[in-house]
């Protein structure tokens, strides 16, 4: 039976890097960030709902969601964030479930890449949870570097999530990403071997 694995971590802990490695091992990845963008894509019902709640300024001149405007509104008015989530989350879930069902039907093991899996209480929607772990200080360093942020900005983003050490205790398996990318690859392969997804001399999933 193919498995459904929830892949999560903290911001900049290395989920995308791990997703790419898993794809190379034959897993299919369903990405929550991509689904969230599709949910409010140009011409969608989702975007029409956003316009009804946030006004015409929520749409830019090309007909896409004006992310910086909507982002600013929900930052200043937390109740609007809840409304946005009520619009977007069910659509995202629907997109992801459909994608998952297709891959499972084709016999693939599926990775549900969900950054806020624990924050949104989605543990029960997957067979098991794998967490990409790194320390908070490394998260902050990598985030500053990748997004060109100040220390304060990076800290604010990291501290807005459930702490990675708490998430670590809730996960079924932990993939350590405190060291180099080469070490990460090795740690992931150790897990895949342990869980029977690959054999010691071949590296095929399924
Ligand atoms: P987000 O939640 O913000 O989307 P993420 O968890 O998907 O992030 P990645 O984008 O994979 O994280 O990694 C964050 C940054 O850290 C990237 O620039 C990536 O290249 C870098 N990175 C990841 N792992 C390592 C590592 N072991 N050593 C050095 N840099 C790394």
Automatic annotation (TrEMBL):
ATP binds at residues 12-17. Pathway: Cofactor biosynthesis; coenzyme A biosynthesis; CoA from (R)-pantothenate: step 5/5. Pfam families: CoaE (PF01121). CDD domains: DPCK. Keywords: ATP-binding, Coenzyme A biosynthesis, Cytoplasm, Kinase, Nucleotide-binding, Transferase. Its EC number is 2.7.1.24. One of its GO terms (cellular component) is cytoplasm. It catalyses: 3'-dephospho-CoA + ATP = ADP + CoA + H(+). It is found in: Cytoplasm. GO terms for molecular function: ATP binding; dephospho-CoA kinase activity. It comes from the Bacteria. GO terms for biological process: coenzyme A biosynthetic process. Its main location: cytoplasm. The keyword RNA-binding does not apply. PANTHER family: BIFUNCTIONAL COENZYME A SYNTHASE-RELATED, DEPHOSPHO-COA KINASE-RELATED. Catalyzes the phosphorylation of the 3'-hydroxyl group of dephosphocoenzyme A to form coenzyme A. Belongs to the CoaE family. This is Dephospho-CoA kinase. It comes from Staphylococcus shinii.
